[in-house]
Amino acid sequence: MTDVLLTHSYHLAYDRKQVQKMQPYPPLGTLYAAALLRAHGYSVALFDTMLEDPAEFSRALRRHRPRVLAIYEDNFNFLSKMCLVRMREVARQMCAEARDAAIPVVVNGSDASDHPQEYFNAGAGLILQGEAEWTLLEVVQNLVAGKPATSVPGVVFPREGTIQRSAQRARIRSLDALPFPARDLVDIESYRGLWTRAHGYFSLNAVASRGCPFRCNWCAKPIYGSAFQCRSAASVAQEMQELKQTWCAEHIWFADDIFALQRHWAEDLGREVEQRNAALPFKIQSRVDLMTEDTARGLRRAGCAETWMGVESGSQAVLDAMDKDLDVANVPAARERLRRHGIRACYFLQFGYPGETLTDIEKTIRLVRDTRPDDIGVSVSYPLPGTPFYERVRAELAQKSNWVDSGELAMMFRGAYTSEFYGALHDALHGEVDSWRTVVDPAEVERRWVRVAQLEATCRNPHPAPAPAAPEPRVITAWNPRPAQEMA
């Protein structure tokens, strides 16, 4: 008998877009929880749904006979935030199978936080709120000892037809105190094989921080909130060294919501990585206005090869409506600065936000053409529970509130245009950017833009969601710009 069987709901084969990309990563958040449980003496097994067939889950239950099943989502994976329908179905089926086997079920993740009753109906006994490693540990301590766990801070539970919540749990004070993720529980060689066959190298994931202090009104933060905590540069460099030497990684994806918030921290990381000979090429997610000269230099020294920035739009009006707190005029300078330091500059772009016009779309296209990013990711505005944006369009989400998979690209509210137009715009802009670095038939790129022009005239919504009121000017004060060593 195993004390805890840990799992998660994301299955690669159910997501056609991610199968095509073939960049699977181990469930980092799940492995952090596993490491803390083991550090306190509990036996842990993992059913890694990323690569294992969910149909095999019942066999894993019989094999491990766990005292507790923990469906602990990888909250560092942006796909978990999206609460994709196929993955929700997997999670609830797991709940039901464990319930039928009389195994206590606890769940942590964005979807369960947003819709606890649906998980209780499926068989879950407790929902763990927010940052939940220590919550899970205390819950397991109680359940294994045969005690109720409803008084543990940070849990939600059903009682007499209502949903009850225990006291809120304080955030972890020092991320350095957590053990490194339990990567030995994962079939690393299967991941390595998929990566090397598809890309010729092997990448693993890590995180240097949790949370994001910026308040873009479409971004949901049910797990880590708007606070920001960062590991010490020394701890991150030590983990990079382990990834390089123990797991033979050749590349790292830092899955932080926002990387290198403090320029001093980026400089410290470069120094710590050099001292350990731990440098590996890595990619990050960050913001245009954080890519200062000092930060870019420190990142490059540490091995950064690629930065994805949330540019979102080339229209200042759209950025202001999003509460993005970003000046579009800073994009060209950040792009050029990264180019000088040999770091690929990539843009996340978002179309369809309420109030966006054809003129705004054209400004985004012009920004891409003028600055020529190394790559782009194009999506449409996606309403997530708990955000001001969601509340603004909530009345229009009666029939559809989640994508089936990450490649769906469907509008779930009434935008200025239909899903067909935005899909064509996605294909055309991707095709043009691809043509800058690969051999792409110019006639094909032109054909895609002709298609966009045709659809622009036929796919307009007569009554799109209205633009939000002009936002009040705000000053970001959500983080304290202290030296990195103090923040750790």
Provide structural commentary.
Helices cover 40% and strands 14% of the residues. It contains 19 helices and 15 strands. The protein has a seven-stranded mixed sheet with strand order 2-1-3-4-5-6-7, sandwiched between helices. The chain has a six-stranded parallel sheet with strand order 8-11-12-13-14-15. The longest helix is centred in the last third of the chain and has 19 residues, at 419-437. The relative contact order is 0.10. Mean pLDDT is 92; it is low at 473-488.
Oligomer: single chain
- Rounded mean pLDDT score: 92
Task: Report the helical percentage.
Answer: 25-40%
| N- to C-terminal distance | 38 Å
Computed Rg: 23 Å
As laid out across the biggest beta sheet, the strand order is 2-1-3-4-5-6-7
Major sheet summary line: 7 strands, mixed
Globally, the shape reads: globular
The number of distinct β-strands equals: 15
Contiguous low-pLDDT stretches (5 residues minimum) are 473-488
Number of helices: 19
Classify the secondary structure makeup into a structural class: alpha/beta
Strand content: 5-15%
Descriptive key words:
488 residues, 19 helices, disordered C terminus, alpha/beta
Strand and helix layout:
Layout: E1 4-7, H1 16-21, H2 28-39, E2 44-47, H3 57-64, E3 68-72, H4 78-81, H5 85-100, E4 105-108, H6 110-114, H7 116-122, E5 126-128, H8 133-144, E6 155-159, E7 162-165, H9 188-199, E8 203-206, E9 209-210, E10 229-230, H10 233-245, E11 251-254, H11 263-276, E12 282-286, H12 293-302, E13 304-312, H13 316-321, H14 331-340, E14 344-351, H15 358-371, E15 375-380, H16 388-393, H17 419-437, H18 442-458, H19 484-487
Parallel strand pairs: 1-2, 1-3, 3-4, 4-5, 8-11, 11-12, 12-13, 13-14, 14-15
Antiparallel strand pairs: 5-6, 6-7, 9-10
